Amino acid sequence: MPSPCRSDDVPLIHLVRHGKAAAGFDSHLDPGLDAVGQRQAVATAERLAPLGLRSIFSSPLARAQQTAAPLAARWGVTPVIEPRVAEIPSPSDDLTQRAQWLRGVLADRWTNLDATLCDWRTAMVDCVNHYTEDGVVFCHFVAINVIVGAATGADEVITFAPDNGSVTTIQAENGSLQVIELGRAADTRIN
After folding, report:
1. 165: phi > 0 → left, psi -120 to 50 → alpha, else beta; which?
2. Please, what are the domains in the chain?
3. What is the pLDDT of residues 59-78, one digit of tens each?
């Protein structure tokens, strides 16, 4: 992984989209990784391991924790479970309703969405803005878009499509986020 130019005292945060899930948003509330996702998790660990030991944070969802596990094992650390980088909160546990709702949200703008989602977004941005040291955060498609959107000033919910296992790198300094490198993009299903 190339070493981006940076100031040594500014936290560099690597946002990792979880590996391919065993089920989609419309068919399981908290799936783990499928075989492809497990391979992606190992490949991501191989890519990030040379960075050297740093903190690992993970969404509480199974697919993010399972993606974090190979890197955590290599570094001999226990990931910190961080609920503020979890998947976008759905108003329903009904899988069909949840999928329909998500499709609408993904095509929208933050200024059009309800206060619950805007509060979730604000909490996530605040969380990442307050990291004081380099770290790796294992999270989700929409979560990465929240951070990239905050860094670029975008109002669209989706600004790019981070692939499963991709790494997006940002800097957080004095309440300001800067995109250093977008992760590999792909036509991808939200899972």
Report:
1. left
2. 18-135+142-181 (3.40.50.1240)
3. 999 999 999 999 999 999 99
Residue 7 is predicted with a pLDDT of 52
- Tokens 């690597």 belong to 14
CB atoms within 10 A of CB 78: 10
Q: What is the tens place of the pLDDT at every residue in 31-63?
A: 999 999 999 999 999 999 999 989 999 999 999
Cβ(91)–Cβ(68) below 8 Å: no
Q: Is the Cβ–Cβ distance between 142 and 87 less than 8 Å?
A: yes
d(C-alpha 172, C-alpha 169), whole Å: 10
pTM of the model: 0.92
Contact 66, 44 (CB under 8 A): no
Q: Which stretches within 139-189 are classed as H helix? A: 141-152
CA nearest 172: which of 111, 124, 116, 140? 124
